[in-house]
Amino acid sequence: MRTALTELVGVRHPIVQTGMGWVAGPRLVSATARAGALGVLASATMTTQQLRAAVREVKSRTDEPFGVNLRADAGDARERVRIIIDEGVKVASFALAPSEELIAELKDAGVVVIPSIGARRHAEKVAAWGADAVIVQGGEGGGHTGEVATTVLLPQVVDAVDIPVIAAGGFRDGRGLVAALAFGAAGIAMGTRFLLTSDSTVPDAVKARYLAAGVKDVTVTTAVDGLPHRMLRTEMVAALEHAGRVRALAQAVRRASGFRRISGLSWSRMVRDGLAMKHGKDLSWSQVLLAANTPMLLKASMVDGRTDLGVMASGQVAGLIEDLPSCAELVERVMAEAHEALGAVVRAERVKGADA
Predict the structure, then answer these.
(1) Interatomic CA distance for residues 288 and 168, integer angstroms
(2) Structural domains for the chain
(3) How far apart are CA 60 and CA 229, in angstroms?
(4) Which of 113, 185, 308, 314 is most exposed by smallest CB count within 10 Å?
């Protein structure tokens, strides 16, 4: 199935595995790439040395194209961009809109630039700055998310820009892919669906928690870092939502201390990173610290398997997922379902034509 996305990045199928912190490592990304989709490494939870090593590990596992996801507001963003260029990575994706200068630097080196956006005006801005494509995440998507559903946001963006648009938020199967194509998208991006594969390194106990969740067990809360964050409702989320300011601050300091030891960041740098995530919001000091060390909260669950201590970012679609296929099985299934769905549409049109 050839689309503007497959032509742009050189993959066989119009499917993207998103860059999920602590989840999208070399094993998942290389498995996705070998399956013919676009795997994206999550670099925000890596040091620059770890990022270079991860890129080289993926390259040792596959010759297929893959990408790296960056935080545009990171203090070392330019160093990470240089690693992407030096190592010959095909795609750079961004969780926040990159500057016009960063886009130009990547494009001059032949790297495809695909920012993720959550509003039409953001898509228009990065398109004007030279982005090659955009990933549009509707409110159903996991992690930091907006209020507009994919089915409303997607056609807005498709109509507003002349670059390929990749739909994210609420996708798990071939029917969703066909629906996205019908809206004018060039493909779909999936996070939670790839997290729940046998190639994902997320601990089995955490995967089981996701598989057991229903649609209503996936919630949006601002208790973690002051921003709307879609995740599984857990003991940790409930504790944060009901904690007073003093208790919340104490919890935030304790977790921030752990993240500082792992990351090597100074307290001042962590506070600066937390403040950078405010986006004009009125955050308490506990939320500022939690915003800075949200990676630690994710690591507790996604790496350490502590569902009681960590947050579990999740798309709403987790409530519909019931199995753990390999990436190869998942991509093959999605494409088979997509062709079947397209065939059903064609057959329906033929019947309609015959009746007329």
Answers:
(1) 27
(2) 4-201+325-347 (3.20.20.70), 214-316 (no CATH)
(3) 35
(4) 308
Whole-number Å distance between alpha carbons of 284 and 258? 20
- Alpha-carbon distance values, 219 to 39, 155, 172, 314, 315 (Å): 26, 25, 18, 9, 9
| Mean pLDDT score of the chain | 89
Q: Of 178, 172, 215, 209, whose CA–CA distance to 191 is shortest?
A: 172
Q: What is the pLDDT of residues 30-72, one digit of tens each?
A: 999 999 999 999 999 899 999 999 999 999 999 999 999 999 9
The pLDDT value given to residue 18: 98
Which pLDDT tens digit goes with each residue over 229-249?
A: 999 998 778 877 776 655 665
Q: Is the Cβ–Cβ distance between 234 and 307 less than 8 Å? A: yes
C-alpha dihedral (134, 140, 142, 144), degrees to nearest 10: 70
Mean pLDDT is lowest, of 124-128, 220-224, 280-284, for: 280-284
- The answer to whether the beta carbons of residues 200 and 28 sit under 8 Å apart is yes
DSSP structure string for 309-336: TS--B--GGGGG------HHHHHHHHHH
**Residues 6 or more apart whose Cβ sits within 8 Å of residue 222:** 228, 229
Query: Does the pLDDT of residue 278 top 90, yes or no?
Result: no
The reported pLDDT for the residue numbered 94 is 96
